[in-house]
Write a structure and sequence with these properties.
CATH class of the largest domain: Alpha Beta
CATH topology of the largest domain: Rossmann fold
Protein name: Substrate-binding domain-containing protein
GO molecular function: DNA-binding transcription factor activity; transcription cis-regulatory region binding
Strand order of the largest sheet: 4-3-5-7-9-15
InterPro entries: HTH_LacI, LacI/GalR-like_sensor, Lambda_DNA-bd_dom_sf, Peripla_BP_I
Distance between the termini: 46 Å
CATH architecture of the largest domain: 3-Layer(aba) Sandwich
Pfam families: LacI (PF00356), Peripla_BP_3 (PF13377)
Keywords: DNA-binding, Transcription, Transcription regulation
Largest sheet: 6 strands, parallel
């Protein structure tokens, strides 16, 4: 369901015969507007039933603007950077933030949305969706303030969403391994049914195809944890499938895979280049060697969402769609180009002949 009201500043502008910018200045009191023009705008707004960002037209109380932020996973690792980015962008515009804990419960989330509306917030940011999904269902009911979805895009194309470019990030990861000379890539992701695994798999296959390559083995699907990374890497090695690059769905998987490769006598990055996803500092810096990873630019996601929200508060545009924020490749030692003569792709299979250490 769309989250925009029927009557916008553009409608008021058309009725009054002025520009939307003039409407914004007249209703906010910021900027010079001829008294006759202001009266005409106020009359048009009242006739159309337009509700300004400060309440019904002609009854605007003087108060600070406020935005509500409803988070589905308040204690998740990815939440804090997004919130920090949003707070910074809103503070620069003198907009206060009310934070609500949805706890992954759609009913609780809807309750907070209704509570925020009763408090007269000027807009609502909704962050997060279902685990492993890059999309989510839109809020229900009529909403008289702008709503921006963050991290997980609304399934309604009329809604405005701001998300990391997860697909582009996966493409960067694969292209990086190919650029460092790897030609036989394998990949380890989370559950096959989850959108996150599907998107990253498709990106991996397409980038390889564009380089005239294909996966060295079928993608391995399991869990988004370190134990699965370890188990999957051992499975790959014991299958005697030659591979020299490993694309991992997140940094936990990459850390587990790197540890398993070391246990089997293989060197990272000389034998296998390993790259993760998320750029979680505890994982990437604590690993040996330090992990290359894709940074989701989460503070920038929060800033972009808040900036778009501020623009909508100043003037309803009614524009929807998905805004993607570019992910960043952060190369480290785990994908360093092997020194000439040190790569040992052929012995990799030889090292796996004994099956006594299978599993994990």
């Amino acid at each position: 369901m769309t989250s925009w009201p029927r009557v916008t500043a553009r409608h008021v502008a058309a009725r009054a015969g002025v520009s939307p910018g003039t409407v914004s200045k007249a209703l906010s009191g910021k900027g010079a507007v001829h008294p006759d023009t202001r009266d005409r705008i106020l009359t048009a707004a009242r006739e159309l039933g337009f509700r300004s960002n400060r309440g019904p037209v002609g009854h605007e109380p003087v108060r600070a603007r406020t935005v509500g932020l409803v988070i589905r996973e308040p204690f998740a690792r990815r939440t804090a950077p997004v919130v920090t980015g949003a707070i910074e962008a809103l503070a620069e515009r003198d907009i206060a933030l009310l934070l609500c804990d949805g706890r992954g419960d759609a009913i609780r989330e809807q309750y907070f949305v209704e509570s925020l509306l009763r408090r007269g917030v000027d807009g609502i940011l909704v962050a997060g969706g279902s685990r492993g999904s890059f999309s989510r269902s839109p809020l229900q009911g009529r909403l008289d303030v702008p709503v921006v979805y963050v991290m997980a895009a609304s399934t309604d194309p009329r809604d405005l969403s701001v998300v990391p470019d997860n697909r582009g990030g996966a493409e960067q990861a694969v292209a990086h391994l190919v650029a460092t000379g790897r030609r036989r890539l394998a990949c380890i992701f989370g559950p096959r049914r989850e959108e996150a695994a599907q998107v990253k798999t498709a990106a991996t296959v397409e980038v390889l195809a564009a380089s005239g390559l294909e996966l060295a083995a079928e993608p391995l699907y399991g869990h988004w944890d370190e134990q699965w990374g370890r188990q999957a890497a051992m499975q790959l090695v014991h299958s005697q499938t030659p591979f020299d690059g490993l694309v991992c769905g997140n940094d936990l998987i990459a850390r587990g895979a790197t540890g398993a490769l070391h246990e089997l006598g293989l060197s990272v990055p000389e034998d296998v280049g390993v790259i993760g996803f998320d750029n979680w500092d505890v994982m990437v810096e604590g690993n040996r060697p330090r992990l290359s990873s894709i940074d989701l630019s989460l503070p920038e996601v929060g800033r972009t969402a808040a900036t778009r929200m501020a623009a909508e508060i100043d003037q309803f545009s009614g524009e929807g769609g998905v805004v993607t924020v570019e992910c960043l490749l952060v190369p480290r030692e785990s994908t360093a180009v092997p020194r000439r003569g040190t790569a040992r792709v052929t012995p990799l299979v030889e090292a796996t002949r004994p099956a006594s250490r299978a599993g994990g």
